[in-house]
Specification:
The protein is mainly α and 348 residues long. The protein has one domain: ABC transporter involved in vitamin B12 uptake, BtuC, CATH 1.10.3470. It is built from 15 helices and four strands. The two termini are 39 Å apart.
Length: 348
Amino acid sequence: MSLDSKSAAPAHPAPGHQRRSALGSVLKLRELPVILALVILVTVTAALNPLFLSEQGIKDLLLNATILMILAVGQTLVIITRNIDLSVGSILGLVAFGTGSVFVAAPNLPIIAVFGIGILFGAVLGAVNGLLITVAKVPALVITLGTLYIFRGINNAWAGGTQYFAGDRPEAFGNLSVDTILGFPVITLIAVVVVAIVAVYMLGTRPGRDLYAIGSDPEAARLFGIPVTRRVLMAFVVNGALAGLAGVLYASRFNSVGATTGSGLELDVVAAAVVGGVAIFGGSGTVVGAAIGALLLTTITSALTALRVDKFWQQAIVGILILAAVVIDRIAGVRAARKLRIAEARNV
């Protein structure tokens, strides 16, 4: 064999190097701290209260996280584009009460049709937000804060003092949060499917990857030919549709829906996304991380309740987690920028 043929032979990294690279990739995952916190929390709580991980306890944990998981997935799409949607709780409330109204007006309507109506209703409300933001060029924080109150006011006017209870809905619809498949509640499996579909969309399709580019640098994204306005509008529409889906599932999960349904939920949604590793400044994060963040927040509440800790401390811990997530993300961003500047200086 000649010297040339030896130099042309492909170089294969040693197995030890491959293992170190794989381990390094795992350790760099933004979701890793959240997963570790969740594991530690569950382990400690189960040690102090063995009933916490009973069959019913696990089912309750999953059910409590389901609605927030779906909302956090939709919010992630919006935050990645450097926006935010504070109206998701009001959208959920409108759709949940609308679901109760539909069942009262048409009790024989197929359940799948009710899901379709709720998702479409939510998508329309999301489109209202998206159009106001992309066309009027007003910051999302201002627009969605306004629509939060507008949608809530519409729900108050529509519902008044009326509430729809479990007896007003078909039994099969209510059973979605009771029935299980392989031990998992049906509505939780719906949430898992949503997370999987959106995760594949974000990482495996051009429009999904465009959202990251927009969040990283909107002006650069425009220069590269990315339709920024259309992509941001799409993110708000999908976010609204998922809030609509969450509203329908809320009507199945809980015993009553009314004018106050979903109040204050938007803050928990943003918290779940941020704690799950979604950068509040846009451009990075995953829907899987947001879903895990939602599971962590609801597990914290359940764990502290099981340990009979005062509700104030539950809220304080969530606040500490949000601050920690933002600070860690900011430090990581500064370090990455510093490394990039050093690398550029060396190349020069």
